[in-house]
Specification:
homodimer; alpha+beta; Jelly Rolls; Arc Repressor Mutant, subunit A; four-stranded antiparallel beta sheet; three-stranded antiparallel beta sheet; 10 strands; 24% strand; elongated; DNA-binding
Chain lengths: 210, 210
DNA sequence: AGCACTATGTAACCTATGTTACTGAGAACA
DNA sequence: TGTTCTCAGTAACATAGGTTACATAGTGCT
């Protein structure tokens, strides 16, 4: 755990803080698809990602989802932070996109470290900044882009986060995360295939050039 | 200034902090429509709202706008905070919705007070929390709601923020903030009038019951 | 092989929203 | 008063995207 923490956060935090994290943090490994946070749940701790990726999803009143963004190595969940401080319910769902390693920090330490460590303050504020901007870009995409552009961006992100050109999802799953319908996504994917940008297979997509 | 600061922030900040704010803050009054922040600009200070309201807008690549949310008395602009810390450009535009009084805090104090005052830390984190949730709700509305619902919510918000049932905007202006077109908004407003929820006049709308 | 299940392809259709164009009604002003 | 501008009402039309329905092709199991 020491080694992994230093690799991901060594350049961000001073040694004293790293040591504190080692003392109070709980190391956790979760498989792909593991649900870390459910909507409406109270959050017990703040996660520091060591490796892997977590997808953050929003849900409408009918239970349909919408992918907001991914959290990756060296990042944390801003929603968790405020939920911890304010003791409010989670407004989002968090699911591991792939196998993920993380360290959970107890709530009360968050506040304590904010007063104590400058690097921690920067990390916390920086995380908020990143997240707010991330949500804004998601919002841009929904408000300003058509579905074909959103799909292309979705595929690009997926390729980047998973670091491979093969996307192991069905059209149905993709439609779900984009808050669209399977038929529409199939239609658009077919168009992308005709343009030579992807090749389609059963239950997976090969991304050639987007 | 002392009186107004205490009224708006007295219950949030300890006296020592109030005094510091009085020493370094600059009092400012801006008229309705005044542009406080432009997209791409660097932000010089962090605003604390004493009275009035500021609307925060996002712009697409073609220059069309989208209303994100309002900032009101006792609140601050989270975007400014992070821009101050990170010295990054603004991703949003801020325009006074009505006559607004505010106090500008110099950048470097932000960091200093975060270490020094617990109430400041809570205020800063709380602001982020509120904003992040606010943006999420805006996003919900865009992703999940149809235009008629969005329009009703827009009118409700406008009535609440301005504290009067008369909305002094043209259909064109409303269309602009909702990122729609004038004809569509006229159509939907007419429908609302037929339902007895509003009455339409030239350049203003009377809200009866939404 | 035969069967059931799931993923995908595709056509036909519906609706919300956007676009263009034209109208008349008020407002501003010479 | 006449002219010009802005604002709003409305019709006609285009299109993206959602819905329903059905066909076909893999996949896995017996």
């Amino acid at each position: 755990m020491i080694q992994e923490l230093k690799t991901s956060y060594g350049h961000l935090f001073e040694d004293a803080l790293i040591n504190e994290i080692l003392q109070v943090g709980t190391y956790k490994e979760v498989p792909s698809g593991f649900k870390l946070i459910e909507i409406g749940a109270y959050i017990k701790g703040m996660p520091l990602l060591v490796s892997g990726a977590i997808k953050i999803l929003r849900e409408d009143t009918d239970g349909n989802e919408l992918l907001l963004y991914y959290i990756e190595k060296g990042e944390t969940c801003s929603m968790s932070m405020t939920c911890c401080v304010g003791r409010t319910k989670s407004e989002i769902r968090a699911i591991a996109e792939k196998e993920t390693k993380l360290i959970m920090i107890p709530v009360q330490k968050m506040e304590e470290w904010t007063a104590k460590y400058k690097s921690w303050r920067h990390f916390v504020l920086g995380s908020y900044h990143t997240r707010l901007n991330e949500v804004l870009h998601t919002l841009d995409s929904i408000a300003f882009d058509k579905m074909d552009e959103r799909l292309v961006n979705y595929l690009k992100e997926k390729v980047r986060v998973n670091n491979k050109n093969r996307i192991d999802n069905t059209h149905k799953e993709i439609a779900y995360e984009l808050h669209s319908s399977r038929v529409v996504i199939s239609r658009l994917l077919k168009k992308l295939e005709r343009l030579g940008k992807v090749t389609l297979h059963r239950s997976h997509i090969e991304v050639l050039d987007l």
